[in-house]
Fold this protein.
Amino acid sequence: MSQRWYTREHEWVDVDGDEATVGITDFAQHQLGEIVYVDLPEPDDSFSAGEALAAVESVKTAADVYAPFNLTVTEVNGELIDAPELLNQNAEGVWLCRVRIENPGQIAGLLDHEGYSAILAAAES
Amino acid sequence: MMDGLTIDSGLRREPVSQLNEASVPGRRGWRLGAAPGAPHDRDEETGFLEAAAPDRGLFADRPPALPELSELDVVRHFTRLSALNYAVDGGFYPLGSCTMKYSPRINENCAALEAFTELHPLTDPADCQGLLALFHELESKLNLLLGYQRFSLQPAAGAQGEFVGLLVIRAYHEDRDDHERREILIPDSAHGTNPASAAAAGFDVVVLPSDADGRLRAGTVRRAAGPRTAGLMLTNPNTLGLFEHEVREIAAAVHEAGGLVYYDGANANAIIGRVRPGDMGFDVCHLNLHKTFSTPHGGGGPGAGPVGVRAGLEQFLPGPLVVRRSDGSFAWEEPAQSAGPVHAWYGNSLVLLKALAYIRTLGGAGCREASGMAVLNANYVLRSLDDLWEPAKPGPVMHEAVLTGKPLRDRTGLGTLDVAKRLIDYGFHPPTMYFPLIVPEALMIEPTETESRETLDRFVAAMRRIHAEMLDEPDLLRQAPQHAAIGRPDEARAARRPVLTWMQQERAEPEI
């Protein structure tokens, strides 16, 4: 069973053993507005925690998606290349990439649902 | 109406027909008569062409599907399109961060002199001493106004100026055999071109957070700067229109870490004749001559983004530069360790002459007065609206006023986009929207010094009327603009599946 974690930069991460799936939160897609382009990494690319893993471009702005921990990409969601609007329709159900977790200790730095909700509440006030 | 506002009826919302839609089979804008001595028999003509053609295969087997129109159809089409364009020459254009000031016609007259337009770049310097003298004078005046040792006039745009500035910073570190400096520090309020230029020049970008007042703090820079820091890019005043109070401490922190400090001259219109980036501690700077020094904007250029450096960095500039010899004559000179040319020849020469014409027309005192008026106009607009729109940060501001539409959006459901669209109905170009990124629902207004109080008052009256409409007649905003040829284009679809030619349009799926 996977467990969903969140980052302060508005990514969600489903952790399942030493593998994880990464996406952006509904709050992130809402802030970005209509998404027109997604720049994805290649399988086997490695990233350190905090490095830009992918980029999402909307009509208003562009934003990086950061690696939540040291990781190696195993698979990317190619469907987003032709249909980036899927992120607007269902951000928390559409994944960007699947990864292998290289430093499981860093998961402790992520937020659970309650912690992330508190951050959103603070951002809205 | 009390405030003298009218809904602009000059641009009615009619579909702009495209040339191919107006096509009528067989209609022609020309008819070629037979040239003297040429064959006029049709078969003979075909035979002549076939005989002259080296390879029949080069011809298409049927004529291209071009629109068939009269000359008048075509003239009217393009005249109509040109009238739909909105320009500073036509109306108020408060597009924040772009400094859309008036370009005085005297600049154009000076640059259009045949003595300049007919010169060839390979002309012997001995035969174009006048042009070299003017370039030398422009460089001297920029050095004086900004506080630098040398300027390269070659870069063709602001973004290219940024790129060149970063190449100079890279060349400086490499010259000292310091190859570990891979990072450029950039505050989160920066223009998007800053991280883009840094990445293009091969650096990693480190984003620094602004404080709650919208300014960069020296402590933030001190914590981020280190042995990997190549430099810091800063705009002052920043994109919130705020002067960076701690700029000298910020520059010192970067210098102590061994880095250089870069001045993004995008907002220099606020400070000319008041304070100089060279004195604030910036080692390298670029200027947008089309912003600060009134050369024309947009249209894809030509532009000019000269790069200035303090003493000790001039050898890295793109060349050639103009030097004055001991006998008083002028010559081209290549800097000793130039980071390399970024444009053919000497840059966009005529644009440079327009900027010099502007500086000479105003003089030093006039340049100083212009920056003062730019700041006064921005604060006038801010104070005329701040009871209805919340300023992004506590004022006063420099050359531009940034407002946030978030409280109004929370209250009415109408955002900054709706306000901007409604301004079009009142005949104004909308301000910059949704930038800086750190301000929700940002509305960024830069009036510039060339607008009269009466124009500012009309703009303010329109904004105040729109505020009332938001509360009483929100549909006017939701349906705006009603009086423009194009209303609300589908920006997402335009970016995802751009249709740039009518042939693409023919192929595109019909709108649902």
Q: What stands out?
A: Chain B has a mean pLDDT of 91.
